[in-house]
Amino acid sequence: MSNALPPKIDITRDDINRVVKHFYVAVRNDPVLAPIFAHSVTADGWQAHEAKIERFWANAILHERDYAGNPFLVHRAQGHIQPEHFEIWLHLFQTTLTTVLPPNPAMQFSNLARRIGESLKMRLQGTRAQARGVPNLH
To answer: Is 104 inside any structural domain?
Structure first.
C-alpha cells in the first residue's frame, strides 16, 4: 500500500527533465540571463545545476523527496540577481512550458512557477530594502 500523494500536475519526471533542459538552453541564449547564470554556473557545472533543478520541480510537483535546499537563500547569496530578473525568467519558463508540454499541464506548471518566482522576487526586494534601511514612518 502506497502513501504517495498524487502529482500536483499531470506530468512525469521525464516531462520535468525535458522542460528543464529546454529552458536552460533558452537561458544560455538570453542576453540578460546568460551572463547572470554564467556568473553562478560554470561551463562544466550545467549538468549538476540542471539535475538539482529537476529534483526541485520533482519535489514541488511529484512530491519526490530528493531535493534539499532553500531557493531564496541561494538566490540572495548570489548578490547579483535582481528582482526584475524574475520577470525575464518567468517569461522564458512559460515559453518553454508551452513548447514542451500540452496546454493544461503547461498552464498549471506556469502558475506554480509564477507563484514561486513572485515569492522569491518579493523576498529579494524586502531583503534589499532592509539592507538599504527602510525609513521609520512613526
So the answer is: yes
Q: How many domains does the chain have?
A: 1
5 in any annotated domain: no
> Any idea what the CATH number is for the domain that residue 71 is in?
1.10.490.10
Instruction: Render pLDDT for 48-96 as a digit per residue (tens, 0 to 9).
Output: 999 999 999 999 999 998 888 767 666 566 666 777 888 899 999 999 9
DSSP character string of 35-73 = HHHHHHS-GGGHHHHHHHHHHHHHHHHH--------HHH
Q: Give every CB contact of residue 76 below 8 A, 6+ residues apart in sequence.
A: 123, 124, 127
